[in-house]
Amino acid sequence: MSELDAGAVREQVGEFKRSIDTLRAEIAKAIVGHGDVVDGVLTCMLAAGHALLEGVPGLGKTMLVRTLGETLSLSFSRVQFTPDLMPADILGTTVIDEGAGGAKSFEFRPGPIFANIVLADEINRATPKTQSALLEAMQEHRVSVGRQTHVLEEPFVVLATQNPLEMEGTYPLPEAQLDRFFFKLHVPFPNREDLHAILDRTTGGAFEQPGPVLDRARILAMQRLVRQVPAARHVQDYAIRVIQATHPDGPDAPELARRFVRFGASPRGAQAVLMASKIRALFDGRFAASIDDVRASAFPALRHRVLLNFEGEAEGVKTDQVIDAILKSIVETKPDAKSEKKGQAIGMA
User: Fold this and answer.
1) In contact, 17 and 148? CB cutoff 8 Å
2) Do 65 and 77 belong to one domain?
3) Do 131 and 14 share a structural domain?
């Protein structure tokens, strides 16, 4: 890499980090704490993926997604999932339109899925039939209605919230749909300091409303930069070994995975881990993904893709425990001289 190229890359990375810091600050005007959750949602957006936010009611999941829509100059829509919601209520439907002179024609009326950011609120309160209406849109970014296929405008991100399955009136998401979510993020209960800040803002005077800080062109440019971030061969190999170890018959699977896991992560899981590692490097102002980035990205990228068997569920084992055991069991391999030299040439640390 020439000195000019290195300088251009350094400027791009710096501008990327400044944009993210500005966006974080704007979101913080409405959202108290939840820094990891905010970064997780931003990671999904930059990877052109989708996020599933899980937590009990009242923790600000919906507000976080709505705030993200307010800070970006993108179209935003919300779908409230209920047991009687039908697929056509999400995708849209074809109707008979009567024009001048009594002429009739078929006209497609798009549903709320035709937006850049779609909030699927309480997604697991709808039936599996309705949930499956999102499969094609989430994977292929298009919608088929009748004989017509409609392409969704980029960027397209589904940000879904769900209540824990133990709550009344919830349906488990199909495995095929879970796999289409880039990240599954747990929204924790706020600590005492954050609760004070929430009460000060919501029970006192009016607080500052967030406004748009990034437009569509800038977001698409940031998504393109993410795909240019290199990952050395040994880093990519580490991510692959992590994915293999989620399978009970994998060569590096720890005892916890062999005993309690029914199915491991799919190749989509490997894609999610590596893409998230690249984005995490850019968040830190680096232009090369590291093994530490892979370790940090493994939990949100894999926790919904590792399916426990009956024994694991009966024992109360959590998928995060399995992932933690996997990360502790896999030995980091050293890079070869060629990869190490390349990493030094393009690294931005």
Assistant:
1) no
2) yes
3) yes
